[in-house]
Amino acid sequence: AQKVTQAQTEISVVEKEDVTLDCVYETRDTTYYLFWYKQPPSGELVFLIRRNSFDEQNEISGRYSWNFQKSTSSFNFTITASQVVDSAVYFCALSEARSGNTGKLIFGQGTTLQVKP
Amino acid sequence: ETGVTQTPRHLVMGMTNKKSLKCEQHLGHNAMYWYKQSAKKPLELMFVYNFKEQTENNSVPSRFSPECPNSSHLFLHLHTLQPEDSALYLCASSQDVISGRRTDTQYFGPGTRLTVL
Question: Do B113 and A43 touch, CB atoms closer than 8 A?
């Protein structure tokens, strides 16, 4: 069965600290996609990254970086030099690419990040 | 700007009322989704439409009735709701994928915050 676990419910850091949000997933498929979304207080989920199961290269985008490790079924997200505007709920999600799949996203419970000035 | 709009942003209704949520996407996508986000629960997929055809109903009670008149618009008609239906209702869209494998990124609207009294 597919499952996404974000064990950290809430994280609080002080501005400029680095913070890592953990994501562990379960799937029996060999082809799948992983996502991270940010949900600020306004409610809208903002897409951050999409990674397929065949690409284990880490990715960096500005202050954001992602570490994908199939061996541990993890897809962790690090924010470097955090800022107050990074305060939000962050969701990790999984989609299996089986033929006929509707693209259903399985979301983790979310991690609430609070960055204090 | 995600290109997915939802109206109204906030809605308060009694259990005997009938109301509708509207979602519109301006991204040229062919698939649209309704999600429910309750407090302290992961996002739950409700319905999926692909090229106006419903492809998934995730065991949603019949008091929620979706309608997709075209690929750009999605409605959720509500009637005789219960207080436990109070939640944030999110709409999303994605580009359809060739060969039946839908693995595209889903882009979300800002949501409708629904309160059922």
Answer: yes
SS3 assignment, position B56: strand
Residue A25 and residue A76: Cα distance in Å, rounded? 11
- Picking from A111, A109, A82, A93, the residue whose alpha carbon sits closest to that of residue A8 is A111
Residue A23 has pLDDT above 50, yes or no: yes
| Residue the block writes with tokens 């991204």 | B27
Q: Do A107 and B107 touch (CB under 8 A)?
A: no
Q: Which amino acid is at A49?
A: I
Compute the distance between CA of residue A45 and CA of residue B11 in angstroms, rounded to an integer: 19
Cβ separation B42–A52 shorter than 8 A: no
pLDDT band at A31 (very low <50, low <70, confident <90, very high): confident
State whether residue A72 is helix, strand or coil. helix
Best mutation target among B108, B114, B115 (most A Cβ atoms within 10 Å) is: B108
Dihedral pair phi/psi, residue B73, rounded to 5°: -125, 140
The reply to whether residue A102 touches residue B2, judged by beta carbons under 8 angstroms, is: no
Task: Look up tokens 């409605």; give the residue.
Answer: B75
